Amino acid sequence: MPQAAERKALERSLKKLNENTITLAELSEIAIRKAVYGLDRLDPGVADDVFILDQEIYALQVEIEKTCVDLLALHAPVARDLRTITTCLKITTDLDRIGRYAKDIAELVLQFHAKEPNPAGTLGKIPRMAEVAVDLVDRATRAFVERDAESVRHIEEDDDAVDLLHDEIFQEIVAQMKAGALDIEVGARYILVTRYLERIADHAVNIGQRVVYMVTGDLAPRVRAAERAKGRPPARDGGPRGSTGDNHRGTDK
Amino acid sequence: MLRSLVKRAAPKAVVPEPEVLQVPPPLTLVDVEDPAIESRNLSVWYARKHAIREVNLKIQRKGITAIIGPSGCGKSTYLRAINRMNDTIRNCRTTGQLLVESEDVYGPNVDPVLLRRKVGLIFQKPNPFPKTVYRNVAFGIQLHYRATKEELDRVVEAALRQANLWDEVKDRLDDSALGLSGGQQQRLCIARALAIHPEMLLMDEPCSALDPVATAKIEDLMFELKKVMTIVIVTHNMQQAARIADHTAFLYLGKLVEYNVTRELFERPTQELTENYITGRFG
Predict the structure, then answer these.
(1) Is there a contact between A6 and B242 if contact means CB atoms under 8 Å apart?
(2) Mean pLDDT of B152-167
(3) What is the complex's ipTM, to 2 decimals?
(4) For chain A, which domains are there?
(5) How far apart are CA B238 and CA B69, in angstroms?
(6) How far A3 CA sits from the closest chain B CA (Å)?
(7) For residue A104, what is the enclosing H or E element?
(8) pLDDT value at residue A113
(9) pLDDT digits (tens, 9 = 90+) for B102-120
(10) Which residues make Cβ contacts (< 8 Å) with residue B156, sequence separation at least 6?
C-alpha cells in the first residue's frame, strides 16, 4: 500500500495521464472531423491540418505510453488505478489509429481532387456513414472523460449500423463500377474511405468497451462482427456481409 | 470525597463507534468447498476491546490465503486465534467457532500443544533460540518425540532442505543461529516449524524485516510448501499478497470486509472500502 507521499505522487501522475488522454481524444476527434469535412467538400486545404494533427497525435501517444509505463513501474498500482492506466495504455493506440485513418482519408481527398470525381448520387451514403462513425468516436471519448460506463455499455450494437452502411456502400460502388458509371480508380478509393470509416468505428467501440472496464471492471465478451452480422438483414446482391471488420476488437491491419 | 463518589457513580455514557458502522456487510466472493480452516462467527475480545467481530472465513486447503488490512484491524489476532496463541494473553476471550480440519479448536477436548504441532506459527521478527543452528531445528522434535541421533540428523537435514536453507548452513550446523542473516534466521524458524511436520503454517508478516532478496527466498519457499500444506499469511505488503496468495481477505476494524480470489480483489474490488485501502487512499 502506498504511503501518503507516494499516493500523492501517484495521483499527480494519474491526473497528468488523464489530461493527456483527454487531449489525445480531442485531437483524434478533430482530425477525423476535419478529414470528413474535407471529404464532404473535396477540399484539399484541409489535408495539411489533418497531417499536422496526426503528428501531434503520435507524439502525444508516445508521451502517454511513457507515463503509463512509469506509473506501472514506480507505483505498482491496483484496482481502479490499475484499470485506469491499462485503459489509457490501450485506448491511446485506438486514438492514434483513428488519427492515422483521418490522415489516410485526407490523403485520398487530395487524390480525389486530382481526379475530380462526382460523389453525388448513390454515394450519398458515405457522409451518413462518416457521421455515424464520428458520433461513435465522440460518444466513446465523452464516456472516457465523464467516466460514464453506461453510455457505452452496448456501443458495439451501434457499430453494427456502420458495418451495415459499409456493406451497402460497397455494393453500390461495385454496381456503379460494373455499369461504367464510376471510374474504377475513384470507386476503389471510395471503398478505401468506407473501410477507414468502418475501422474508425471499430476503434471507437474498443474505446467504449475499455471505458466500461475502467469504470466497472467488467470486460466485455469478445463477439465477432460476423456473429453479430448474422442478426442483421442481408445486404443486396449477397454482398460481403460481415466479411469486413471481422476482428472487431482486434488491431489494425 | 463526596465528589469523587458521585463521579464514580455517574452512569458511563454509551459512546457509539461510528467508524464501525461504516464497515459494510462482509462480502465473500470465493467459494471454498473443502476448507482446512474455517471460522464461524468468530469474535475475539481483549478485555472490553472487540478485536475480531464475527468473522466467517473458509481457508483453502493447500493454498496460500493472505489477510490484509490496516494496523490494528485484527489480522494478527485472527491468525493467532487459529492455533490458540491468544490463550497466552490475559483477558483474551474468544467466541464462535474456529474449525481446523472440521474440529473446533476451542472445543473442550483440544490440547493446545498438539494443536500447535499441527498448526505452526512464524512470527514477524525471526526468533531463533540462542543455540546452534542444529539445536534450533532439533529442539521442537525433541519436545514432541523421542528420536535417536541418526533420526534427529535425518529430520534436521530434511527440514533445513525443505526450508531451502541446507546448502547455506550445512557447514555451520554447530554455529550459533544468531550469527545467521535475517533472512536465514527466518528460514531457520520455518525449518524449526517444519521439523515437526505441521499441516498448516501461519505466517505473521514473515518478510517485514527482510530485504527483497531474502523476501523472494521466503516467497519461493511458500510456493513450494503450499503443495503440501495450508498457509495463511498476514502481510502489510500489498504486492506480496498479490504475488503469492490464492485468496485474499481484507479486514477492517475487526470485521471481514471482502474475501475473494486475489487477482479479482486487486483488479476489481467490490467494496469501496477495499478499493480505498489497497490503492493507499487510507491506512
Answers:
(1) no
(2) 93
(3) 0.71
(4) 8-230 (1.20.58.220)
(5) 9
(6) 6
(7) helix A79-115
(8) 61
(9) 999 999 889 999 999 999 9
(10) B134, B137, B138, B141, B173, B195
